[in-house]
Design a protein that fits this description.
The complex is a heterodimer of chains A (316) and B (446). Chain A is mostly helical. Chain A is built from 13 helices and 2 strands; from the N terminus they run H-H-E-E-H-H-H-H-H-H-H-H-H-H-H. Chain A folds into 2 domains: 2-58, no CATH class; 79-307, Orthogonal Bundle (MetI-like fold). In chain A, strands 1-2 form a two-stranded antiparallel sheet. Chain B is α+β, with helices and mostly antiparallel strands. The chains are: A mainly alpha (316), B alpha+beta (446).
Chain lengths: 316, 446
C-alpha cells in the first residue's frame, strides 16, 4: 500500500513541496523490495542462469580439455535433432511417463478414497504401509524387481500356475518398458496417495452430503465434486510426475542397461550413455542433447498446464 | 576389456556414484603436489577383480617404501563411472598423473592430446622387453604413449566335461564349428541347465563379438581407412544367425543375471558352456573352485571349423601418464618400477590372477618359466597356445561404431528386425558416425 500511496502522491500536481520526500520514500520502498528478492535472484543467477547461459555458449564448441576448443556453431544441435536415437529416447521417456503417471494417480486416488473411509487407527496404519515404498531406495527396488523378473523368478512362477511359458520380462523388447514401469509406479504411489488424501480431506463433507440428498451416486460425486476440487492438486501431480518420469535414469540403468535394443533408453539414459565415451565429440554431443531435453521438458510442462487449467479453488 | 564386472553390482555402484559425482566432481581428483619434500602423484586404477585391487595396493605401498622422493596416492575408481569422473577431473585440471587405460582407448586419447609421450620418460631398454605383437598396441606414428601390463583374449569356450559326457558327447573333442556348437548346445540343454551362454545385450555384444566378427568376415564392419561402413557384407548374416539360433532356440538364458564379462552363471552351474574372456579362469579359481575339475577350455568354435582363424580380440590394460601432469618424470618412474622393472613384480601379478591373463614382456615369461604352477596350468596352456596366437588387436574406432554392430546382433536375436535389415541399419549408423565424427582417414598408424 505504501508504494501505491507514494505513487498517487507523486502524481499529484498539488503537492509540489512534498514530492522529493515522497520520491525518496518510494525509492526506499523499492530498495527494500529489491533487497528482499536479491538473495534469490543472486542464487538463481549464480546456480541456474549463468550455468545455463554458459552451457549454451559451450555447446557451440567441440570441447576438449587438452586442446583449444573448436567453434562449430549450431552443428551439435543439428546432430542431436537429426539423431533418430535422440527422438526415440524422448518417445521412450514419454511412453514410460504415460505408463507410470496416470496409473500411479488412479491407484493413489482409489487408495486415498479408501483410506478416507477408514477409522483413524486403521488409516494411520494404512498410511504408513502405503508410504513405505517411497522410502525404499530406487537401487534396492530395481534389484528386487530384477530378481522377481528372472526366468525362474516369482513373476514367472505365477505365470506357470496358469500354464503360461516364462516371459523374458527384462529382455524382450515389448515387455521391458512395462516391466520397469511397475517398480516406477510402486516407488511413486506412496507420496501421491498421501498428497491426494490430504486434498480429499480438505473437501468439506457438506458437499457430499447435499449431493447425496439430491440422489448423486458415487461416480457422479466423483465427477462433479471430487475431481473438480482436486484439480490443482492433480495438476501439480501430473506436471511433477511427468517431468520426473521422463527423466527416469536409475531403473533402466540398473535393470536393463537401456536395452533390449534400446527399448528402455530414456532420454537421461541416452545422454548418460553418450557422455561415457571419452571423445570431445561425446562431451559436446551430450551437453547439447541435455539442453534440448530441457526445451522438450519445458514444452511438455506447458502442454499439461494448458490442458488442465489451474484455478483458484471455489472453497478458497 | 572396458566392461568387466557383474552388471548388477556395477549398476548399483554406478547409481550411487553417479549421484555423488554431481556434487563431488572435484573430490578424489588428481594432480601432482609436494608434501614433506616428496612429490605426490595420483594414480587412478579402474576397479577390476578384487584380487587386483589388493595387488595394486601392495605394490604401491612397496614403491612408496622403496624410495623417499615420490609418493603415489592410489585411488580405485568404479568402472562405469570412470569416464564421468575422469572427464570431471580433466575439466577441473585435476586429472590423475597415472591411470589405467585399455588398449582400445589409447588412440582416441592420443588424438585428443591427453597422453604424455613415454619415449623420453622411460629408457629405450624398457620398450625392448615388450613382445613384438604388443608393441604396436601402444605405438602411434612411431611414438609410445602407454606401457602395457597384460593381454587377455576376449572370447574362449568354457565347457563342463561332466555334463558333456552325460549327454553322450566327447569331452576331449569340443565343438570346432558354429554348427557343432549349436548341436552341443541343443544336446546339453535340459529344463534346469541351458546349453550355452553368450552376450545378449548390445553394450556387451558391441565389444565381445569383435573376435567373431573377424572370424565371420576376416574384417570389422568398417573399411580399413575408416572411410565407410562395411556391415552389410553377407558373411555377417551367418554370425547374426548363430546368435539368433542360440537365443531364439532357447539354448541360452533369456534373462541373464550377469553381463558377458561375469562367469557367475557358469560357476553356479546354470549353463553347460560359456563364451567368456580368459579372465573368467581367475574368477572360477577364486569363487567357484569346485568347478575347476569339471571344466575345460577350448578356442571358441570357428565359422567353418578352422581353428586358426581369429575368434578373440586381445584386450588388456596399460598405464599411461597424463599430458598435463606436473610430475611426468616421477609418474613415469612409478610406471617403470611397476610394469617395466623387476620381472618378479609382474610375475607375481600373473600368479595372483590364476594365470588368467597373459604377459607382454619376454623377461616376465622367463621369470614364470620356472614356476611349476604356470607350466602345469591346463587352462593357460590351451589359451596361450591355441587362442592368443590368433587373437587380433581391439579396434581403435569410437565405441558408437561397436555399439551399432552390437545393436544389430541384439535386434536379430530378439526379433526386432530381420538379419539383413539389422545389418543395413548398423551400416547406416556406422556411416553416420563416420560422417559426424569426421573419422575417414583418421585410423591410427602404428
Amino acid at each position: 500500500m505504501a508504494l501505491l500511496d507514494s505513487n498517487r502522491a507523486a502524481a499529484s500536481p498539488k503537492a509540489p513541496g512534498a514530492v522529493p520526500r515522497r520520491v525518496g520514500a518510494r525509492r526506499q520502498d523499492n530498495l527494500t523490495a529489491y533487497l528482499m528478492i536479491a538473495p534469490m535472484v543472486v542464487l538463481l543467477g549464480v546456480f541456474v542462469m549463468w550455468p545455463l547461459a554458459y552451457s549454451v555458449y559451450l555447446s557451440t564448441f567441440e570441447i576438449s580439455f587438452y586442446k583449444a576448443p573448436k567453434f562449430v556453431g549450431a552443428q551439435f544441435y543439428k546432430y542431436v535433432l537429426e539423431s533418430a536415437d535422440f527422438w526415440h529416447s524422448i518417445l521412450i521417456g514419454l511412453s514410460y511417463a504415460l505408463l507410470v503417471v496416470p496409473t500411479g494417480i488412479v491407484i493413489a486416488l482409489l487408495l486415498a478414497s479408501f483410506i478416507k473411509t477408514l477409522s483413524k487407527r486403521v488409516a494411520a496404519f494404512m498410511k504408513v504401509t502405503v508410504y513405505l515404498p517411497a522410502v525404499v531406495s530406487t537401487v534396492i527396488a530395481s534389484v528386487l524387481f530384477t530378481f522377481m523378473y528372472q526366468d525362474a523368478g516369482v513373476v514367472n512362477w505365477f505365470l506357470s500356475l496358469i500354464n503360461h511359458a516364462p516371459i523374458a520380462w527384462l529382455n524382450s523388447p515389448q515387455w521391458a518398458l512395462p516391466a520397469i514401469a511397475v517398480p516406477g509406479i510402486w516407488l511413486g504411489f506412496g507420496i501421491t496417495t498421501l498428497i491426494l488424501l490430504a486434498a480429499l480431506l480438505d473437501i468439506p463433507d457438506s458437499y457430499y452430503e447435499s449431493a447425496m440428498l439430491d440422489g448423486a451416486n458415487f461416480f457422479q460425486r466423483l465427477r462433479y465434486i471430487t475431481i473438480p476440487l482436486l484439480k490443482n492438486v492433480l495438476l501439480y501431480l501430473f506436471v511433477t510426475g511427468f517431468t520426473l518420469a521422463i527423466q527416469m535414469l536409475d531403473l533402466p540403468l540398473i535393470m536393463t542397461n537401456g536395452g533390449p535394443t534400446g527399448a528402455t533408453t530414456t532420454p537421461n539414459f541416452y545422454i548418460f550413455n553418450s557422455f561415457r565415451e571419452l571423445t570431445p565429440y561425446a562431451t559436446s554431443y551430450s551437453l547439447t542433447a541435455s539442453l534440448l531435453l530441457f526445451v522438450v521438458l519445458g514444452a511438455i510442462s506447458i502442454v499439461i498446464f494448458r490442458l488442465i487449467r489451474s484455478d483458484k479453488a471455489v472453497d478458497g | 576389456m572396458p566392461r568387466r564386472r557383474s552388471t548388477l553390482a556395477l549398476a548399483i555402484s554406478a547409481a550411487v556414484a553417479a549421484s555423488l559425482a554431481l556434487s563431488a566432481c572435484g573430490s578424489g581428483g588428481g594432480g601432482a603436489r609436494t608434501e614433506g619434500g616428496k612429490t605426490v602423484i595420483t594414480f587412478w586404477q579402474q576397479k577390476f577383480e578384487d584380487y587386483q585391487q589388493a595387488w595394486f595396493k601392495k605394490q604401491v605401498d612397496a614403491f612408496n617404501a622403496s624410495q623417499d622422493k615420490v609418493k603415489v596416492d592410489y585411488q580405485v575408481q568404479p568402472a562405469d563411472t570412470w569416464a564421468q569422473k575422469l572427464k570431471a577431473a580433466q575439466a577441473a585440471g585435476k586429472a590423475p598423473d597415472v591411470q589405467t587405460t585399455s588398449y582400445g582407448n589409447i588412440p582416441a586419447a592420443v588424438t585428443n592430446g591427453e597422453l604424455a609421450e613415454l619415449d623420453g620418460l622411460l629408457p629405450a631398454s624398457a620398450f625392448d622387453d615388450i613382445k613384438d605383437n604388443v608393441k604396436s598396441f601402444v605405438t602411434f606414428n612411431g611414438k609410445r604413449y602407454a606401457y602395457p601390463m597384460l593381454v587377455e583374449p576376449s572370447t574362449v569356450l568354457y565347457y563342463r566335461t561332466d555334463l558333456a559326457a552325460a549327454a553322450g558327447l566327447d569331452p576331449k573333442n569340443p565343438p570346432k564349428s558354429w554348427d557343432e556348437l549349436v548341436q552341443w548346445s541343443t544336446k546339453l540343454t535340459t529344463p534346469k541347465v541351458k546349453g550355452m551362454t553368450i552376450a545378449s545385450a548390445a553394450p556387451d555384444l558391441a565389444w565381445s563379438s569383435w573376435g567373431l566378427q573377424y572370424n565371420a568376415c576376416g574384417h570389422l564392419p568398417i573399411a580399413d581407412d575408416w572411410s565407410k561402413a562395411n556391415a552389410t557384407d553377407p558373411c555377417y548374416e551367418k554370425l547374426l544367425q548363430l546368435y539368433k539360433t542360440l537365443y531364439q532356440g532357447g539354448l541360452m538364458p533369456k534373462t541373464p543375471k550377469v553381463g558377458y564379462a561375469d562367469g557367475a552363471s557358469y560357476g553356479q552351474g546354470e549353463v553347460a558352456m560359456m563364451a567368456g574372456g580368459s579372465w573368467v579362469v581367475g574368477q572360477l579359481k577364486a569363487e567357484f573352485p569346485n568347478m575347476i575339475s569339471k571344466t575345460a577350455v577350448a578356442p571358441f568354435p570357428s565359422i567353418d571349423g578352422d581353428q586358426t582363424k581369429t575368434t578373440a580380440t586381445l584386450g588388456g590394460w596399460t598405464l599411461t601418464v597424463d599430458a598435463k601432469s606436473k610430475a611426468k618424470q616421477q609418474a613415469a618412474q612409478f610406471v617403470q618400477w611397476l610394469l617395466a622393472g623387476d620381472p618378479a613384480i609382474m610375475a607375481d601379478f600373473f600368479k595372483t590372477s590364476g594365470f588368467s591373463k597373459y604377459t607382454v614382456r619376454t623377461s616376465v615369461d622367463q621369470a614364470l618359466a620356472g614356476n611349476p604352477d604356470a607350466s602345469s596350468d591346463p587352462f593357460m596352456k590351451t589359451i596361450s597356445t591355441k587362442v592368443v596366437p590368433y587373437g587380433k588387436q581391439e579396434p581403435a574406432y569410437p565405441y558408437d561404431i561397436a555399439l551399432a554392430f552390437g545393436t544389430a546382433v541384439e535386434s536379430a536375436m530378439k526379433g526386432t528386425a530381420s538379419i539383413p535389415d539389422a545389418l543395413k541399419k548398423a551400416d547406416e549408423k556406422i556411416n553416420d558416425v563416420i560422417k559426424k565424427q569426421s573419422l575417414a582417414g583418421t585410423q591410427p598408424r602404428r
